[in-house]
Amino acid sequence: MKSIGKVQAVTYTLFRQRNCKNVTIRVLSDGSVRVSAPLSVSIRSVERVIEKNYGKLVATVAKQQELGRLYAQTWENGDQFLFWGKLCPLSLIPSIEDSADYENDTFKIRFIGDKPEKEEIRKIIKEMYRSYAQARIGVHVFRWSEILSLPLPPFKVRDSRKRWGSCSAKGTLSFSLRAAALDEGDLSYLVLHEMAHLVHFDHGKKFHAFLSENMPDWKARQKHMFSIQRQSEL
């Protein structure tokens, strides 16, 4: 169940969930505010929580909106893209052939004749992310399946803006092509997180204990991933 509300300058989207025990507030990478609450909690109780955290919320929303302006891509020479944990520039090169490569920490798009349109450049970059994410995730899925003694699960790479990854009830893993932006440590955590759902499908205490047992610094990894969410968008 979803509804929209507003507390002073903060507009929020409320999601009521059966398995939710507490009111939680999250500021998404685009600056929007998402609130999760149990079915039994009143709107007034939800808004009291927002009011209690109002100053911090306003500051976080402003920060995310500023990051959005800072990292907005123009799809021109010199744009910076987060890739493998590093900022890598875009180089558009007139050439005798059309090609796209990642060389020396640079995205090099060579083209014949007129420079490609911005949307075409965006598609090319996304496909490069998808290709590299597919290969790198595959390595980590295999590694964690060996460590955790789990069957090798199927996985897909999709163009997801909001989620880094997910695990279906049937055991299929999905990852955002933005996962190519992560360094090896964060990517390893992401894969472990989704594979942990093959053992504990929810986000309960056993799930978190499982993460801690297999990656003691997982909370720092998760925090870092949230901090670069906006920067990773394409």
TrEMBL record:
Hydrolase as UniProt keyword? yes
Show the InterPro entries listed in the entry: UTP_pyrophosphatase-like (IPR053136), YgjP-like_metallopeptidase (IPR002725)
The terms under GO molecular function for this entry are: hydrolase activity
Q: Which residues form the YgjP-like metallopeptidase domain?
A: 21-225
Keywords from the named record: Hydrolase
Q: What is this protein called?
A: Putative metal-dependent hydrolase
